Amino acid sequence: MIKKFLIIFALSFSSIFIGDVKAEFGDADFPIGLFKDGPKSYHDAWCRKIKNECRVRFQGKAMWVEGQGGIELDQYISYKYDVDGGEYYNYLYYVSKKGQRREALFLFVNGGAQRDFQKAFLKWIEQDKNPAPNYRTPCSQGTQETHNRDCDLNPYEKPLIKDWKQKTTD
């Protein structure tokens, strides 16, 4: 009888640790630790001039243009934006590694893409690790609305990018 009780107790206790148990909200719950490495996102923009396509990434304390270079948060000075005839101009001021004050320009023609970029930029400045109110998967962002969703580029489902020269675009 005691042996039977111990077996039942052991099985029921071990079932707590077996398998991928869903939390209280099931499929609606984010995986634990998903946002632990800080804000992550990418935004398809134009760099410095119209039609000069580039992908801007935010990951933890870094912001960069894929395949080119970027900055760490401590290099950031200020930001301003302007709108001219449906084009959104985002000016970023920073200190280069050589100590020089520099400027960068990111342009968008899609209002939704502009808002997504600004939200991500503010999350990056604040280092807000919480999910965005409107958590959107990649490929719903860009200079034009694509609504393809994920496209296997979701930065939260990929390992951290360590090399800024790595490109996910053609």
Write the layout of secondary structure elements.
Blueprint: H1 2-14, E1 40-47, E2 53-59, E3 62-65, E4 69-72, E5 76-84, E6 87-95, E7 101-108, H2 111-126
Antiparallel strand pairs: 1-2, 1-7, 2-3, 3-4, 5-6, 6-7
SSE arrangement, N to C: HEEEEEEEH
Rg = 21 Å
Q: Which spans have pLDDT < 50 for at least 5 consecutive residues?
A: 143-149
Helical proportion? 10-25%
How much β-strand is present in the residues?
A: 25-35%
Number of helices: 2
Main sheet makeup: 7 strands, antiparallel
Q: Summarize model confidence as the mean pLDDT.
A: 79
What would you call the shape? elongated
Broad structural category: alpha+beta
Largest sheet, spatial ordering of strands: 4-3-2-1-7-6-5
Straight-line distance between termini: 68 Å
The count of β-strands is 7
What does this structure look like?
This protein has helices spanning 2-14, 111-126, and strands spanning 40-47, 53-59, 62-65, 69-72, 76-84, 87-95, 101-108. It is α+β, with helices and mostly antiparallel strands and 170 residues long. β3 (62-65) and β4 (69-72) form a beta hairpin. The protein starts with a helix and ends in a 44-residue tail after the last helix. The relative contact order is 0.17.
Q: What's this entry about, in short?
A:
This protein has 170 residues and is α+β, with helices and mostly antiparallel strands. Helix content is 17%, strand content 29%.
